[in-house]
Each structure stands twice: as structure tokens, then as C-alpha cells.
Write a structure and sequence with these properties.
This protein has four domains: 2-219, Aminohydrolase, N-terminal nucleophile (Ntn) domain (Glutamine Phosphoribosylpyrophosphate, subunit 1, domain 1), CATH 3.60.20.10; 233-372 and 463-533, Rossmann fold (3-Layer(aba) Sandwich); 377-454, no CATH class; 542-610, no CATH class. The protein is α+β, with helices and mostly antiparallel strands.
């Protein structure tokens, strides 16, 4: 696991060193540089040593130094690939480096190498003979990759803060990204919050010509459509279990200690069970809970303890008071790079885990594989559609405008959002921003047309794998784990498992009342009866308590009329139209207020003080 960076078209080595240094948290164990002054080009990396600790130094090259790579991630089938390459005549210098496998696989198969990789990765290869940079991001978007092109300068990095080291890159906000963030609480691909910086979407690669300055970005993978028919439920369950076991076994390969994040829910409990059943000994598990709500609907520590007892793990509880999450909020925002409003407790889980292990397995992705909290229900069930529409109509405060939006964007309107289009236009943004803003609901409408399947369940899943999964959940997982120099792995997103599950007909894969019934049936004997019977729990941040308590003075300041007027991004009336009604008792505005408040904290950190 690493932080990678590169700079083409500029020979200032001090800038590259600065870009590398700002990512030191991603790789405190080692660093390296490669420079080709004839281009000019520089590659850099910070390394967290996990596999082939002694022989995995980067940047790494082939024998004749014509191919160089910087690589962030892990390739879990590297041993099989290495053996195939040796049989074809390739010679390896390292003992068992997966990075070197990538170098030789590129020599053998060029861009088609991506189809053979199983793992999580972002990498950039410099091919001297072709005079190109070839960069790629894994199928699910587990590992990040950002880039910028300013004239004849091209630069890439694992994190945005590295690219901001370049004087050619402005800190001007991408107003469309800001507009979209207010709807989704994350920045959709392929933009970032900055005008000059792009993100490579999941399952894409780029080719940059160092001579011509041309850049091409292409998709190389997508989740398959449903096509498995004729298999019985028992046969499907057997295949799911086999593939899940295989994924967990492969994704636990490590030369250093690892542990599991254990919430007590189905996904993380199954992960621990699968790991233990595979013969893995002395598993360390970690769960978080709140000191005054142990028996509450939000706290799953009792279930986590049940799973820990069942498999004999070395279990650790992280006990927090709700306001503890605010102590390091500014540090979280710095590591996130972009505005984000959820997932804060993960910070403390990864922080505690990093004291005992260097690799963390998490259950991320399990929800998306099996219905994702029923996000598809409004597209199939009239009652759910009416309920969703009514919720947004309350936010819109205008039934006619609600109906107009629903008619214009029938798919996009029903997708989960925080601010609706009507709210943003009526109560949030001035006409200067609105003149060029594309409706965020149009993003979903466009994705729906491009990914439409026979069932809305499949279409919503396809959109989630392109949007929310990589750019919210995996984005947060990467930033919060790497902030503590911890490698987070997500075995449920092994593409072999994902492809098989998504090929199961949607009406078999999940049911409206029991979204994960098939997964639970597949893991009979792995999950305890208590975990199976427990109702689905949704972690909810104590936002209301914070905004009306310890954060109220900051809320009034950063969303007050004076601050908004000076900032120039929002209507000055936003406080009276959104914040004041919320503080006055309209609790349904809570998530809207939290979303814009978290943006303001980001703005204060990166635009005013960054």
C-alpha cells in the first residue's frame, strides 16, 4: 500500500519531493524517486510495506529500464501470474513482489493486462519506448487516482493535496461539483471539488502521450447483467459460499499482522467467520460503541461480542462518547481532501486498529451486492415511490415543482439525495451559479439510460457501483485508514464474487422484506443465530445533538449571513430558509443542514487556511 505521485513536463525535483512528502501517512516505511530529465518526468512513492517487505521498493523497473511503475494497492493473484510469466521467459529480481509482476505483465499484454488482475490498485506505468504514461484504477474504485493537466504539464497522485503543491493548479472550486455534493454528500466521478483536478473513475484507465500531450480515458470493466438461470437456490448458495471463502482467503495474504473491523452486522460477522473457518489463527477483531447507549438500537457491541466468542477472536472494543467524534473533526477533514458528511466513526476504528495491525479487513460492499438498503424499492413498488416523493415534496415546499422535477427526471428524482433540485435553486444558490449548473438529478438519469437492465434492482446496483460505492464508502475507507498508515481490504469486492452475485437474477438475489436472505442462507454455520435474527441496524451520526449543542456556535457562524455574503457561494438567505427552520423544530432538514455545514468546515480548512 502506497501513496504515488508523478510529474511530467516540469523538471523541478523539489516539487515532486513535496508532493511525495505530503502523502507520508500513506507510506511511512519507505520512499523512492525516479527521474528522466529528457522528458522531463519524475515518479515518486511512499510505501507501507505489506508484501515482500525487503524487495518491494519503488519505483520499480524491468531489466532494461524501459518500463517503470509506481503502484498503490495489492494484487492477490500475483503468485499465479508470476508463475505464468516465468514460464513465458520473464526473469524476476525480487523474491515475491506483486509490483514486479505488474511490470512484466505489462510487457507481455500491454493495456490488456487489466483483465488478469484480481485486487485493489491504482498504478501508473512509464513506457519509454512508446513515450506514454499508462494509469489504471481497479474495477471497484478501492484505490484512488487523481490527475491534472495544465498546458504541457501532466501530474497524478493518490491524493488531491499532492497536486495542490503545483503552483499551476488553482484552488478554484468546481461549482458543478459543489452543486452535486449538496445532492449526494460526495463528489460524483470524474470531477473533483477543484476545477483543475480530475479523478480517474473506477474501472477506467488513461493513456497520456508525453510527446503530443494527448490524454485518453477508457472504461475496461462493468458489472455483468443477470444471466444465471436454471440453478437451484442450494446450488447458488454453494457457489456464493465457495467464492466468498476464496475471496477472503486470497485477500488475507500478508507478510504483516491483520485484523477485522467487526460491527456485529451480517457482513462483518460473516467476514470474521469465513476467515476463521479458513484456518486463520489468532484473529484480532475491533468494534466501536457508545458509552451511554450500549443497549440502544445503534450499538452492535453485544452482537460483535457474540461473533468474537463464537470464533475465539482477540476482541477489542472502542468505547466513545458521541462528542468524542468531534475532537478530531478538523484532522478528518484534512485527510479527506474533499467535502464529505458521513462515516466518521470509522476514523476511530482504523485509528485503534493501527496500534495492533497493519492490515484491516472490512465488510464494505456487502450491502451493494444484496439490495443496498432497498434503494431500488421506489422504482418497483408504488407505495415506496409515493413515500419517497412525499419526502422530497416536503423538502421542495412546492408540489407543482416537485411534480415538474419528477416528470423531467423520473429516475433521477427517486434516487437518494440530500438537497433536491428545487431546494438548491430556491433556497441555496444564487443565479450566478445556477446559470451553468447541470441538474444533479440528470446525472442519475444519464447513468440509468446507460446502465438500464431488465430490473430496476440491477440498474440501481450498476449505478451504485459507479457512484456511491467508489466515491463515498471506498473513498472514506481509503482516506481514514491511510490517515493511520493502515491498509484496508474489502474481500466482498473481489471481482469474481461480485460478477457471480450480480449474474444471479435480481428476484432471486434479494427480496423486498429480506434483502440478504440469499447471503445468509449461503453462510449457514458461519453466522450465529443471534446475528441472523437481529434486525438490520443503520449507524446514524448524532447530528441533531451536535448541531444544536457543541457545534451550534460554529453553525451560526459558518452559515450566518455575514459569512455567506463574504464567501459568495450561497444565498445569504440560506440561514433563514434552511438553518433557522431546522433549529426551530423542522427536524426533517437535519441532513440538509449537516451536508452544507460539513462543506463549510472543508471550505474553512482548505480555501481559507489550507
Amino acid at each position: 500500500m502506497c501513496g504515488i505521485a508523478g510529474l511530467a513536463g516540469k523538471s523541478d525535483s523539489s516539487i515532486l519531493e513535496k508532493m511525495n512528502a505530503v502523502q507520508i501517512h500513506r507510506g511511512p516505511d519507505d520512499c523512492g524517486f525516479y527521474r528522466d530529465p529528457s522528458v522531463p518526468l519524475g515518479l515518486a512513492m511512499r510505501r507501507l510495506s505489506i508484501i515482500d517487505i525487503e524487495g518491494g521498493h519503488q519505483p520499480m523497473s524491468n531489466e532494461d529500464k524501459s518500463i517503470w511503475i509506481v503502484f498503490n494497492g495489492e494484487i492477490y493473484n500475483f503468485k499465479a501470474l508470476r508463475e505464468k510469466l516465468i514460464n513465458k521467459g520473464h526473469k524476476f529480481a525480487s523474491h515475491h513482489s506483486d509490483t514486479e509482476v505488474l511490470v512484466h505483465l505489462y510487457e507481455e499484454r500491454s493495456f490488456d493486462m487489466l483483465s488478469e488482475l484480481n485486487g485493489m490498485f491504482s498504478f501508473v506505468i512509464y513506457d519509454k519506448n512508446k513515450n506514454i504514461l499508462f494509469g489504471a484504477r481497479d474495477r471497484m474504485g478501492i484505490k484512488p487516482l487523481y490527475f491534472t493537466r495544465r498546458g504541457r504539464i501532466f501530474s497524478f497522485a493518490s491524493e488531491i493535496k499532492s497536486l495542490l503543491c503545483l503552483e499551476e493548479v488553482s484552488k478554484d472550486i468546481n461549482l458543478q461539483s459543489l452543486y452535486d455534493y449538496m445532492s449526494f454528500q460526495f463528489i460524483p466521478p470524474s470531477s473533483s471539488i477543484y476545477k483543475d483536478i480530475k479523478k480517474l473513475p473506477a474501472a477506467h484507465y488513461f493513456v497520456y502521450s508525453l510527446k503530443a500531450g494527448d490524454l485518453a480515458v477508457k472504461r475496461y470493466w462493468d458489472i455483468p447483467a443477470s444471466d444465471i438461470y436454471g440453478m437451484s437456490i442450494d446450488e447458488l448458495c454453494g457457489q456464493i459460499k465457495n467464492k466468498a471463502e476464496e475471496a477472503v482467503k486470497d485477500w488475507s495474504i500478508s507478510d504483516v499482522p491483520l485484523g477485522c473491523s467487526l460491527s456485529g452486522g451480517i457482513d462483518s460477522s460473516a467476514l470474521v467467520g469465513l476467515l476463521a473457518a479458513s484456518g486463520f489463527k489468532k484473529i484480532k477483531t475491533f468494534s466501536v460503541g457508545f458509552s451511554h447507549k450500549r443497549e440502544s438500537f445503534l450499538d452492535e457491541r453485544r452482537l460483535a461480542e457474540e461473533t468474537a466468542r463464537m470464533w475465539g477472536t482477540e476482541h477489542h472494543e472502542i468505547v466513545l462518547k458521541p462528542d468524542d467524534l468531534l475532537r478530531e473533526l478538523d484532522e478528518m477533514i484534512w485527510h479527506l481532501d474533499e467535502p464529505y458528511g458521513g462515516g466518521l466513526p470509522s476514523w476511530y476504528v482504523f485509528k485503534e486498529m493501527s496500534k495492533a495491525v497493519k492490515v484491516a479487513l472490512t465488510g464494505t460492499g456487502g450491502d451493494e451486492l444484496f439490495g443496498n438498503y432497498g434503494k431500488w424499492l421506489p422504482y418497483e413498488i408504488i407505495f415506496e415511490r409515493l413515500k419517497q416523493t412525499a419526502k422530497y415534496a416536503i423538502l421542495d415546499r412546492s408540489p407543482l415543482k416537485t411534480l415538474s422535477s419528477l416528470k423531467k427526471f423520473p429516475k433521477g428524482y427517486l434516487y437518494k439525495r440530500y438537497f433536491t433540485e428545487v431546494m438548491k435553486r430556491n433556497y441555496m444558490f444564487d443565479t450566478g451559479i445556477l446559470e451553468n449548473a447541470r441538474p444533479s438529478e440528470a446525472i442519475i438519469e444519464r447513468l440509468w439510460r446507460g446502465a438500464e437492465r431488465k430490473s430496476p434492482r440491477d440498474t440501481v446496483a450498476s449505478i451504485d457501483f459507479k457512484m456511491q460505492l467508489p466515491e463515498e464508502f471506498l473513498y472514506m475507507t481509503d482516506r481514514f485508514s491511510m490517515a493511520h498508515s493502515l491498509e484496508a481490504r474489502v474481500p466482498y469486492l473481489d471481482h469474481r464474487l461480485v460478477e457471480f452475485i450480480m449474474r444471479i437474477p435480481p428476484q432471486v438475489r434479494t427480496h423486498p422484506g429480506k434483502l440478504k436472505y440469499l447471503f445468509i442462507k449461503s453462510l449457514k454455520g458461519v453466522l450465529s443465530p443471534e446475528v441472523i435474527k437481529a434486525p438490520k441496524k443503520y449507524f446514524v451520526l448524532p447530528v441533531d445533538r451536535w448541531l444544536k449543542g457543541p457545534l451550534r456556535s460554529k453553525l451560526n457562524h459558518y452559515l450566518g449571513e455575514a459569512y455567506l455574503a463574504k464567501q459568495g457561494l450561497f444565498k445569504r438567505e440560506l440561514y433563514n430558509d434552511i438553518v433557522k427552520p431546522y433549529l426551530g423544530g423542522r427536524s426533517y432538514l437535519k441532513n440538509c443542514v449537516w451536508t452544507v455545514f460539513m462543506f463549510q468546515l472543508w471550505y474553512e480548512r482548505f480555501q481559507k487556511n489550507g
